[in-house]
Amino acid sequence: MSNSLSIFSNILSKYAATLSSGKWWLVILELVAGCSLALLVTRLASRQNSKLPLPPGPPKEPILGHLRLMPSENQADVFHAWAKVYGAVIGLHFLGRNVIVLDSFEAAHDLLEDRSFIYSCRPRFVIYELMGFVPVLTFLQYHTAEFLKHRKMFQTFLGKHESAEYIPYQAEYAKILARNLMEKPEKYLWYLEKFTTSVIVRITSGYQIVEDDDTYIKIAQDVSKGIGNSGSPGNTPVDYFPWLRHLPSWFPGTFYAFYARSIYEKIRRVCDVPVEYVRKQMADGIAQPSFVYHHLDALNAEVEAIEDPEKKKTLYEEELVHIAGAAGTMYAAGGETSYATLQTFVLAMMLHPEIQNKAQAEIDHVLSNTGGDLRRFPEIEDRENLPFVECILQETFRWHPVLPLGVPHRSIKSDVYNGMFIPEGSIIFPNVRGMSLNEHIYSNPYKFNPMRFMSKENGGKGEPYFPAQWGFGRRICPGRYLAETGLWLAIATILATLSIQKAKDENGKEIEPKIEFTDGLVSQPCPFKCNITPRSKSAATLLVLHV
């Protein structure tokens, strides 16, 4: 790939005069020629490294490879369909890159877990860099000082034991969510996002969201929109050829670069606002414990020990950038994925009232008095006594993973897997969606069926939970314990107090929703109408009395 980039660099050095003279058509002709030459060089170089075959895939065209076959939408589903023909490891080649799609958990585990020293790196995410997501753990290169620094920042704050400290926040906000849904069910999307944002912002910066129009919610919505409209992660023309970001907006392939720059200031707020808030609170002596406070306090102590004013200033400014990037990672990644998961849960409950009723019967057995009245909210200690509610959470993860293609990995050296050659620099997509549809593991995989996870002794199928939604190897989500606990509390509280049903039209007829999901890095259900009401008088009373 380095040969390809050097070719393009030489070509681009000649373009300034040509563009200024108005002969833009010469630029296009030369770029086409340059692309062809670069693709040929890359292709020949990769084949010289091994006589073993590349992973199989659809037939490709000369020069363009699989470029014209690449789906513009529903990529994960298309890849899964290809996997049924070509196998669980698919090889694609286009724009000078080898792309490997892993469609089975076994293959993903073998490579991304067992050989994580080869496959833990990332491709460069130029679009996200232009948007302002720097430095962000999700996109940092492995084996770098930055990556190790950020991973340590999260591990010391979001481990399994540490995450348990935030359960009171999550439980409190879950109750507020249920009350808001009861009072204003038509705004369910807003309140789901308010819940996930409130939790993550409280833990990140100690800030407490109260009002519905809070600035932090607006920031979360800007991030959600930005990610949703920025193309497939690491898979846009600008990500493949970073030099495109320097060309005019009318030039083919530059759209996402201009879009990313246009929302830079909005996106940077997700990193900078929490840090500035905590710094002000610390200056006023009223800062609350939080992720940012923890790291700022440690930084202040480190800086205080330095006598040289210039070194002190340099260290503070450098470390502040990392704290802001880590805060943005928590804020954006933690809130967005949980928000999408809760939307999927609401859709599933609306479509399957029999499952909802079964879960509520289990909850009533644990939480209701002898008269059948709900006497309290679910607590985290109830989790082991509510196995079917747990199965609903796990099936929500599996039924439609919120990161259908995960976040792509990159191989740092050539490798051989099951007789197939994987060249150095290959982009590896774990097809999480495809893994969730594996018929050899999950029976009738397109059906939402929590009983698949129950033991056979309890009438279930004894199928395994679906861990792929958290990622793989050294790139596994550092906030998975925090996220899963918060989602369980939200789901259990909603099921205990509310009933989710299909909306009705003016004639009282139920409206059948379309089951459609958005594309992009994070996938969520397309907006749908639903009807949310309190389950009982005792549930409504419990919500009203809760302050």
UniProtKB/TrEMBL annotation:
Pathway recorded for this protein: Secondary metabolite biosynthesis
Cofactor: heme
Binding site for heme: C477
Keyword terms: Heme, Iron, Membrane, Metal-binding, Monooxygenase, Oxidoreductase, Transmembrane, Transmembrane helix
Alphabetical list of Pfam families matching this protein: p450
Positions of transmembrane segments: 24-45, 125-143
GO molecular function: heme binding; iron ion binding; monooxygenase activity; oxidoreductase activity, acting on paired donors, with incorporation or reduction of molecular oxygen
InterPro entries the UniProt entry points to: Cyt_P450, Cyt_P450_CS, Cyt_P450_E_grp-I, Cyt_P450_sf, Cytochrome_P450_fung
Keyword Oxidoreductase: yes
Family classification: Belongs to the cytochrome P450 family.
Name of the protein in its database record: Cytochrome P450
